[in-house]
Amino acid sequence: MFKRFNKLNEVVHLWDLDKKNKNDKIQILKIWMENLSEDEFGILLDICSNFNYYSEKLTAQVYKKLYENNISKPDDVEIFLSQSLFFPLRKKDRIESAVDMFSSFRLVNNIDANRTKIICPADYLINYNSNYHNLKKLVEENDLTDKNDNERIQNLNQQLINIKNETISKKIEKKIINLKKGKNNREQRLNKRVELFNENYFSVKNMIIIDDFIGTGDSVVSFLKKIGKSLKENDINIKINLWVIEASKQGLEAIEDIVTKFELDMSISYYKESIDVLVEEKLFPTQNIRDVQEIIRGINKRNNLKPSRYCRNHAIASFVNAPNNNLTLLSENSFTWNALFPRTKRNKEERIISRTELKEAYDFLRK
Amino acid sequence: MKFSSLKKNIVLLIIKDHNMAGIIDIIKEYLNVTAEQVFHIIDYLVRSKLVVFEDGKLVITLEGYSSLSYAKLSNITIESMSEIKYIVNEASLENYIPKKL
C-alpha cells in the first residue's frame, strides 16, 4: 500500500502542475487505488507514468523548438516570414480552444499579430479564391474600359486638331479631362483593391497552421478536402505547413493520402510521435498486452465508459484540454469514474429553432 | 492603438487572476473584441512592459502592478466586481450644480 502510494506521488510529480492541480490528481489516483484491484491500478499507474502533460511551460518550450527547427530551413528567414501567415487549426463551430495553444506559440516566438489570422484556414483559402475571381473580373473589365477610353481620348485629340471653333474645342477638351479624371479615379480604386489583395493573399506563399495533437488526422483531412480541390483548380501557389506538438502514425498516414490525392504542397512537422499505449512493445511487452487490453476493457465496462470513434489510446493532455483520441478512462468521466485529465467540451451549443421561427424565416424569404 | 487605461486595467486584472487557458476568451468577452485584436492588445502590454511572457505564462510586471495600484484596483478581482459596495459621500453632492436646469 505504502509502496503504491509512493509511486502514485512520483507519477504526479512528473507533471508540471501547480500545487492545487497536483493535489487534485493525487486525490483522483487515490480513488482509483481504492476502487481498483492491485493489478488494474498497477497497469493504470504504468500508463500514467508515460502520460505526456504539456503544461504552459512545456508547451512554450516545444513550440519554440518546433519554430526554430523549421525556421532554420529557408535560406532567407526574413523573406520566409514576410511571406507567411500563421493560423490555428480552428473549426468554425468551435469556441477558441485552439487559440490558447496558438497564443502560446505566437508569444514564445514573438510572432507579429499582423502575421496571424484567426479564421478557419479553409475559409481563408475560400476567401482567397473568391477575391481572386472577383478581382480578376474587375481587372479585365477595367482593362477593357481603359482601352475604350484611350481610343476615345485619342479620337477626341484628333478632332481637336481639326476643329477651329473655340466653343466646340473647349467642349472636347472638357470631355478629355473628364475621361482622364474618370480613368485616374478608377485606377486609384483598383490599385487599392489590388494592394489589399497582394497584402492579404498574393504575397502569402506559406500558410503555417499550428495545432496541438494529430490523433486520427480527421480535422486536418477534412480541412484538406475542403481546400484541396480549389487550390488545384485555381493555381493558388501556397505551401501548407502544419506544425504540431504530437502526431500519431495513423493520423500522419491519413493526411499523407489526401496530400497525394490532391497533389498538395504540404509539410508536417511535429515534436513527438504519439503512441497507442495498448499496442504491444510500446509500454507493455507482447506477452502481457492481451491481459492489459482485457483489464482496460473491464474497467471501461464497469464504469460505463464508451470509447469514441476518435479513441486511439493515447496518453496526452495540454494545459488547455485533453484530446479525444486519448485512452477513454484517462479523459472521460462517468457517474462512477473520475478522469485524470478530463476533456472539456467547448463546442458551441446549437440553438434549437422552433417550427414557427423556421416558417417565419421562409415567409420572409418568399415575400 | 486606441486603448483606454480602463480597458488596459481590465486586461491586467484578467491576466492577474486567470490561467493561460481561457485568457483570450475572457478578454474577448469583457472588451467585446476579436481574438486578433486581443493579440494586438497583449503585444501592446508587452511593449509597454506591463506584462511579460515567462515560462509559458503571461505575467504582470511591477509596472503593471503599479498601474493597477494607481487605479486602486490591485486588491480586487474581475469576478468580485459585482459584490463591491460603493459608499457615496452625499455631502460632496450638495455643491453639485447641474449644467442644465
Describe the structure.
The complex is a heterodimer of chains A (367) and B (101). Chain A has 367 residues and is of the alpha/beta class. Chain A folds into 3 domains: 2-51 and 277-311 and 315-331, no CATH class; 56-118 and 205-269, Rossmann fold (3-Layer(aba) Sandwich), CATH 3.40.50; 124-202. Chain A is built from 13 helices and 6 strands. Chain A has helices spanning 2-12, 19-35, 38-48, 56-71, 77-82, 97-108, 121-162, 166-202, 218-233, 249-262, 286-302, 328-331, 355-366; strands at residues 52-54, 84-88, 206-214, 239-248, 266-274, 316-318. A 4-stranded parallel sheet of chain A has the order 2-3-4-5, with helices on both faces. In chain A, strands 1-6 form a two-stranded parallel sheet. In chain A, helix 4 (56-71) packs across helix 6 (97-108). The model of chain A has no long low-confidence stretch (mean pLDDT 90). Chain B has 101 residues and is mainly α. Chain B has one domain (5-90): Arc Repressor Mutant, subunit A. Chain B has 4 helices and 2 strands. A two-stranded antiparallel sheet of chain B has the order 1-2. In chain B, strand 1 (51-54) and strand 2 (57-60) form a beta hairpin. In chain B, helix 1 (5-17) packs antiparallel against helix 2 and helix 2 crosses helix 3. The relative contact order of chain B is 0.15. The model of chain B has no long low-confidence stretch (mean pLDDT 86).
Key structural traits:
heterodimer; A: 367 residues; Rossmann fold; 3 domains; four-stranded parallel β-sheet; 13 helices; B: 101 residues; Arc Repressor Mutant, subunit A; two-stranded antiparallel sheet; 8% strand; elongated; PRTase-CE (chain A); PRTase-CE domain-containing protein (chain A); YjcQ protein (chain B)
